[in-house]
Write a structure and sequence with these properties.
Chain lengths: 312, 312
């Protein structure tokens, strides 16, 4: 591998998969600090030097584990955007509703979808259908707006760690269908979803679905377990052959597990000066590889860094 | 599968993988034509009813086959954007330069990269380095502009079947790093590429690379063979373990093969009224599933349909 990296035949890019950054010391001579300031303008160095206060623990109450034969997919829920759906999904999970159900659809450059493909499995104490939560009022919602123009929405940015959009004129906000975002599948009736089937975006952004589905969270670890799944050969990436389905071993809420069995994660906060600097370091790349900094950045091209929780 | 599709627990989307559309008859009663006109406003129906003149054969001289153990990846070259690189790649291919070389990098939501990881394999009659072709003059270039705003460029659209951008003030045009686009890797020196290592975008758009790499074409068939590859565990998705490398069996130019051994493909032309209608059908989805048509579309969210060549 040394040879590969040595000759630099690589494209520079922030890893889209979770970054595992480490803290660095601040007591350095001025010359070293100046060098550090220069290096800190690259995304990787920016993360490495981010203060502890720039990180937040991901709440175990808002964390789903989807355990697959290949490993664990970790999803952070977004109750601030979809309170009724998230409550219903919590009920479904605690009843073991998803255990043994399949990933039945994998569409290239689009989506993986899992849950009940028949719509007939008992939902027990939960509900099969929940009224749509496609958008919510702007009021009461933290929002770090990007200055960059967006193709789809009047304004885009981040809210509590999720990529989001809003319309200031109508006072509405919604989550954006970026890579890794999780939403509830539904039929043609807007209120026909409920969380019994969920999808994750495994390819390019699917922004045409914004305000058409209830978004319930984001995959914060384990995306490659979904993005590398064999694609379905049927329409919309449906698996024609049930033998191609991947069986979900179980879905759990992290808080229901003893701490030793949890995947303790921290995410970079999206409402701090550090995050703003991180975004700027992506907007105008100063890594020596880049010849033309873009000057702009798309909301879906900003990976939200996640790391294993630092023991203090 | 009937059950799955029956209850509609699916998200409607145009398949990002090549669409294989079929022609339909036009001699129908008025009522059926009216129904047809309504259905034709969906992307799938739009493609099904596209006239033969809306399709173009992909030139075998501009077609690369990358034969992997898993199957064939078909790449359409873009000599109109990178004449020197394409000429050099043709020489490399005809010398068998890529045969046996690996896919040595697979970065989730980003890129797969292949070719010579050492920079030492003999290039024979070809050149190891070719001066950068990041952009070209607007003059002489067909361009179907989109009216939609773009985050990264003053104007975006399509040129000869490729997603592209241009700056009318400076009179420059370049290809966009959308899903499936292929470019030449390079070191920090802008002129250090040459086509001995190539990459394909396998995740979200990498528009920050626009005008930073020489784009040489687009994967027109076989993307799932790249997008499902196991991700590399090293920095930037490099495989730490060479045993994870995928060996390229051979790379060939289609025109060098007898017709019976070619993958004969046609692509939807991007300079016709049909294409404009197709884009509009994606911009404002009229499928019954959609509640809120987006009203806008991103240049990277418009899959360019490809089908097996129709025998006439």
């Amino acid at each position: 591998m040394r040879k590969v990296l040595g000759i630099g035949l690589v494209l520079a890019a922030v890893a889209a998969s979770p970054c595992r950054a480490q803290d660095t010391a601040n007591n350095l001579p001025p010359a070293v600090q100046a060098l550090h300031a220069h290096l800190a303008s690259t995304p990787d160095a920016m993360l490495a030097s981010a203060p502890e206060s720039a990180w937040r623990a991901i709440d175990p109450d808002d964390t789903l584990y989807m355990n697959l034969p290949q490993g664990r997919v970790v999803i952070e829920l977004a109750p601030q955007f979809a309170p009724r759906y998230v409550a219903n999904i919590r009920k479904l999970v605690r009843q073991g509703f998803f255990d043994g159900l399949p990933i039945f659809r994998v569409q290239d450059d689009a989506v993986a979808e899992w849950g009940d493909p028949t719509g007939r499995k008992s939902v027990g104490m939960a509900r099969r259908m929940v009224a749509a939560e496609f958008e919510r009022p702007v009021r009461g919602l933290p929002f770090t707006a990007l200055p960059d123009p967006d193709t789809y929405a009047p304004q885009v940015g981040f809210s509590d760690g999720f990529p989001a959009a809003r319309d200031p004129v109508f006072g509405r906000a919604w989550l954006a269908n970026c890579y890794g975002m999780v939403g509830a599948a539904r039929g043609n009736n807007v209120d026909s979803g409920g969380g019994t089937a969920l999808y994750a975006v495994i390819g390019g952004p699917q922004r045409q679905w914004d305000r058409n589905t209830t978004m319930i969270g984001r995959v914060v670890e384990g995306m490659p377990l979904l993005s590398t799944l064999p694609r379905g050969q049927g329409p919309l990436g449906m698996h024609r052959d049930r033998h191609r389905w991947v069986r979900i071993e179980s879905v759990q809420i992290a808080a229901d597990l003893p701490p030793a069995k949890r995947t303790a994660l921290e995410a970079l906060r999206t409402d701090t000066p550090t995050f703003t600097q991180y975004v700027e370091s992506l907007r105008n790349r100063r890594d020596p590889w880049f010849k033309v900094p873009a000057g702009r950045i798309s909301v879906c091209s900003i990976p939200i860094p996640v790391r294993s929780k630092v023991n203090t």
